[in-house]
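Researcher: Structure for this, please.
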Amino acid sequence: MTPALLQPEVAYPGTVKIEIGARRARAKQYYDRNVGGTPHDVIQPGQWVYAKPNPQHKHSAWPHGIVEKVSLPRSYTVVTPHGKIRRNRAQIRLAAAPPPGAKTYMSQQTGDQTQHSDTCEDSEPP
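Model: Predicted structure, token format:
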């Protein structure tokens, strides 16, 4: 090793700032390439979706529900068998609608409630 390589050099502040700025610009360029990812499709109210379960039930299946309203650009209110839940667009997956003649919890909640009475007519008195 030569002693000339061990001699200190003067770092000019202007050159250092330019080099640091160039490194930051290059890092930003690579970072911005993948930040946004692929954009999600907009979900309209009335569409069937699967919603991510709460963290306490993370191993359970995603409940099937219907979008009630869009609160914010990425926030959706979903009606599921367990009630209404609010989810971010990243926590929702599109689902197929059930067949037209199928009985679902949604049909029971909307129009079929008026057909059922609180008393049970078929049961016998004790």
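Researcher: Any notable elements?
Model: The CA atoms of residues 54 and 81 lie 14 Å apart. DSSP finds two helices and five strands in the chain.
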